[in-house]
Amino acid sequence: MPDNQKINSILEKANNLEFLTFNECLLLYQHASLSQLLFAANQIRQKIHPNNIVSYIIDRNINLTNVCVSNCLFCNFCRNKNSEQAYVLSIEEYIEKIEHLKSLGGNQILLQGGMNPALDLEYYETLFKKLKKYYPDLKLHALGPPEIAFLAKQEGISTKRCLQILINAGLDSLPGGGAEILSDRVRKLVSPAKVCSEQWLNIMHEAHQLGLTTSATMMYGHLETIEERIEHFLKLRDIQKIKPENSKGFISFTSWSLAGKNTRLLKKYPDIKTVNSTEFLKMLALSRIILINIPNIQVSWLTRGKEIAKLALHGGANDMSSIMIEENVVSQAGKNFKLGVKEMEETIIEAGFIPQLRNQEYEYL
Ligand code: SF4
């Protein structure tokens, strides 16, 4: 057990915005108190964002299909192509959803694809071009490394070429979905059909090289070890270190714990324990302390509710992510909080901050 002096010297190093080693991160997880971590994370947040502002965005999740061959064990949303509930959205449905989004003041969609073998690269190219033709100002925050790898493989082209084709068709930024835990041991257990961790990171690096802004995520609280969580942080930090100077790279990091209700993962591994709010806040604070080269830390209020989100704003987070108009994967696994614009702003004010609407590039609007 290290003495408090050792923990304090690691926290001081973090407060000087220096990169911590794996062992230092592990010692913080194992021996620092929650209050020490929250305090340190808040100091770092204040250094990176020396203001009293908490940002948020108005965007809309759209799951363009629920047919997905990935069959991740934590997903209640995907369907077999022969299922009666299988769907692929029509252009009329997009228009209806985007019109609703615009009526609320938003102009970005988070388009989640999944792996539907019936939808090839040309389908996405045509879709992106059509959406941009109808809505030239619309921002497409779409797909993610697993979908890019899936489409590139189907097409027999490199993932970088696939990204370039989608950028030319209108892709504006790449979400960090499908990261779960960037350990192949864990990925084989929870989402075996998805890209391996190296591929996930590689595709993100390629996106950065092509000038795409991306985001980073982590879903923990299932079959990973604490060491694997720390490795995940460090892998993200290392990819961010080598981004081209003129690229924003990972603009944000968001973490959430498994929402596993009725999932095959919990049926197969009934010993998985639900992550409590103390652990959630601890992980959020650690993300701020470790990922000093990723500017924004989002709090996932969707999975924790607004009261815990308010606490997180004092423990490292500077962004409340989006109001939620539609979400399918997490809400079908037992988490279903809702927040409109008014309530979002009230929540931020109640926590003692100034709400600020932003776009996907984190530019204030
Ligand atoms: S989480 Fe996404 S990739 Fe995994 S099965 Fe569900 S829809 Fe497919």
Short description:
By secondary structure, the protein is an alpha/beta fold. It is built from 15 helices and 9 strands. The protein has helices at 4-15, 22-31, 34-48, 91-103, 121-134, 145-155, 159-169, 184-190, 197-209, 226-241, 264-268, 277-290, 301-304, 306-312, 341-350, and strands at 53-63, 108-112, 139-142, 173-174, 213-220, 250-257, 296-299, 319-323, 354-357.
Strand content: 5-15%
Average pLDDT level? 93
Instruction: Supply the number of structural domains.
Output: 1
How many helices? The count is: 15
Distinct compounds present: iron/sulfur cluster
Q: Which radius of gyration do the C-alpha atoms yield?
A: 20 Å
Assigned CATH class:
Alpha Beta
Q: Got a strand count?
A: 9
Query: Structural class, please?
Result: alpha/beta
Shape summary = globular
Q: Main beta sheet, described?
A: 5 strands, parallel
- Unreliable spans: none
